[in-house]
Amino acid sequence: MSFLNKLGIGLGAAAGTGRETPRTIAAVGRPRPNGPSPIAAVGATRAPEPRESNRVSNGLKEFLWNLEGLGRGTLLDLGPAWQTTLSFFIERGFRVSSEDILRAWKEFLQEEEGKLREATGRAAQHNLDVTPAARAARFLEANLQYPSSSFDAILLWDLLDYLEPLVARQMVANLTELLRPGGVVFAMFHSKKAEGFQRYRVADSSTLQVISSPVLCPAQRVYQNREIQDLFSRYRTVKSFVGRDQLRESLFIK
Amino acid sequence: MWKKEDVKSQAVPENPSAISTSPALPAIGGSPTREPSSAPVSSKASACISQGIRIKGEVTGSEDLFVDGHVEGKLNLSNGSLTVGPNGEVKADIFAREVIVRGRVDGKIVGREKIQLWSTGNVAGDLQTERLSIEDGAVLRGRVEIETGKPLDKFSEARGAAAGASRSGPVPVSSGSAAD
After folding, report:
1. Does B132 contact chain A (CB < 8 Å)?
2. How do residues A188-219 score in pLDDT, each as one tens digit?
3. CA dihedral defined by B126, A96, B141, A228, rounded to 10 degrees?
4. Which of B79, B86, B92 is nearest to B11 (CA)?
5. Residues of B in contact with A59 (CB under 8 A)
6. In Å, how far from its chain's centre is CA A181?
7. Domain A3-253: what homologous superfamily?
């Protein structure tokens, strides 16, 4: 079994994804009446209109409060490039860098799978190190390449839940290097394994829009409090806000 | 051969309102909605590099250009508008008055007046413009610089709200309401 399948991203994983999707809908309580089934949506070239809802975010409020008075700050947004999120911060004088890490991770895994298949096909002695540590190193060599202390703030969203634990750990270490002293990271963690796949964008200073999207990467793990503190042990302040939707919003100040 | 007619039909959206079918999102640093005039820009395109054409080097000019092929090097349209079509792949720094990306661009984009990323657009590079609009689904990997006037200060509202949230205790654990 390829590592893509193990991670639930490979071709064989489609069925698994499909099996999980209806549960997601049931959990949300809003089944799609007549539209295309969510199973068809996974991997479709043109996804159906994503479902959106709003979520009051105390973590975002606190994040903004910490950035107040910064003037022309620099922000790294590790989610998709949403117009509303970029507008929100740019209008407030921020220079925003955008990098959709989960999309990059998915593409990276597909490339790795291709390389592996090619090497196996040639029946050659391939020297591609497929250990998680080597994979994490290769991924991070190709992503998040910025000078150290480049950013005042980082929007990490909930992507650590979806990355291999080793990649997540190494990525947090890299982000810590990219953040200036006093800089803030806004992250989210699911208190139970996320069944659906959602992306987030800033609607206003206290509201996030939650957008249900086709599964890009399946959830990898649920981080417990102690593990989160461990991951961010180099940060001096940690604040958490737990929502009724089992989503923990956390702020880490370097 | 060149299939100019085909290319033109790609350049002009079949539905002129196609660009505004996405949620109306305010253009960064500009007017709150996309201007209808932005859609038919490519219809005026007097030149096109159609699918299957590959150019390596520097392309300069002052007319509008539609690129649905491959361009590698540098694209400089001082007063023109550049549209990268859905099949277009540009590995070049782009300088133009207005840039519309529906395909793939690997390089820095300077759109003096406006940059539009359509849902099929994929950009790896920094963006510099006065106004930017991004359709849902577009992929951007790079820094955004908007050349506008004085940045707005809207943090006071957030501060008040955050202060309210923090009053609940030393370690604020609030019931941030769920999506319902």
Report:
1. yes
2. 999 887 778 889 999 999 999 999 888 888 88
3. 150
4. B86
5. 176
6. 23
7. Vaccinia Virus protein VP39 (3.40.50.150)
Subunit contact A68:B156, Cβ cutoff 8 A: yes
pLDDT in tens, B76-108: 998 899 999 999 999 999 999 999 999 999 999
φ, ψ of residue A55 in degrees (nearest 5): -140, 125
Domain ranges of chain A: 3-253
Residue ranges of chain A whose pLDDT lies below 70: 1-50, 121-126
Distances in whole angstroms, Cα of residue A180 to Cα of each of A68, A254, B78? 15, 7, 38
> CB B161 to CB A57 under 8 A?
no
Amino acid at position A100, single letter: D
Residues of B whose CB is below 8 A from A96 = 143-144
> What is the distance of C-alpha A160 from the center of its chain?
6
N-to-C CA span, chain A:
41
**Complex-level ipTM beyond the 0.85 threshold:** no
Would the CB atoms of A93 and B26 count as touching at under 8 Å? no
Which residues of chain A does B137 touch, with a Cβ-Cβ cutoff of 8 Å? 47
| Distance (Å) of CA A158 to CA A110, A190, B88 | 22, 8, 33
Query: Length of chain B, please?
Result: 180
Segments making up each domain of chain B, as ranges:
1-8+39-147
Residue in A24, A52, A65, A158 to test binding to B, most B beta-carbons within 10 Å: A65
- Sequence-distant (6+) residues with CB within 8 A of A240 are A248, A249, A250, A251, B171, B172, B173
- Give CA separation, A100 vs A62, A83, A168, A241, B42, in Å: 23, 14, 14, 24, 29
- For chain B, say whether A83 makes contact (Cβ under 8 Å): yes
**Is A58's CB within 8 Å of B146's CB?**
no
